[in-house]
Amino acid sequence: MQIPGYGQDIMVVDNNAPQPYAKADLRIKCNLFWAGGLDYCVQHVVHKGYTHLWFLNDDILFVSPAPFIHRVWNRMLHVEKHCGPVGVYSPSFTTNPYHPHMVQSVGQGFTRIGYVDGIAPLISLDCLQEIGGLDMGDNHVGYGVDVWLSTRSAEKGWVVIVDHELVARHRYHGTARTISGMMERARSS
């Protein structure tokens, strides 16, 4: 996908979402779930010169005004100037029943945190390499992999932040509800 001003720097991979994304550069043949999809994307881009991977759930909608990519990149550079290299960045969300620190705090700017929810993490590939990769084992569903990834990043000194100036709404388990047995697997994770 080409976005004006970014050339070929943007690649969109559809992890076989229930509603296909027509502009995707690549659609995976079967849903690999969260961690499996993230691992697939990392393996696909790691040797192509990309520096970051923004892994977005298919059931989010940004409620902040566009443009998103340019704004996120500039916000991340601002944080790096003041706090050091960002390992994992995330927008904030209108609600989050699992991780309240991910909910937008108006006027807060950004918050340095110990871990992020994996709804929309922007991951530094250098950080991912330094911490030894995803470390998902056979947990392709991914519950907990997001927390473990960002916790290890913070422990290695990488900045992990939630940005309260970029806000999205997430429909929790939107895709999971369409896959037979998925919610039961999630509850047992």
Q: What brief labels describe this structure?
A:
8 strands; 19% strand; alpha/beta; 28% helix; 189 residues; 6-stranded mixed β-sheet
* Structural class label: alpha/beta
Largest sheet: 6 strands, mixed
The low-confidence runs, each spanning 5 or more residues with pLDDT under 50, are: none
- C-alpha termini separation: 35 Å
Give a short summary of the structure.
InterPro entries: Nucleotide-diphossugar_trans (IPR029044). The protein is of the alpha/beta class and about 190 residues long.
Describe the structure.
This protein has one domain. It has five helices and eight strands, in the order E-E-H-E-E-H-E-E-E-H-H-E-H. Strands 3, 4, 5, 6, 7 and 8 form a six-stranded mixed beta sheet that branches. Strands 1-2 form a two-stranded parallel sheet. The longest helix has 16 residues. 29% of the residues are buried. The mean pLDDT is 87. This is Glycosyltransferase. InterPro entries: Nucleotide-diphossugar_trans (IPR029044).
What is this structure's SSE topology?
Layout: E1 13-14, E2 26-27, H1 33-45, E3 52-54, E4 60-62, H2 68-83, E5 86-93, E6 110-112, E7 122-124, H3 125-130, H4 145-155, E8 159-170, H5 182-188
Parallel strand pairs: 1-2, 5-8
Antiparallel strand pairs: 3-7, 4-8, 5-7, 6-8
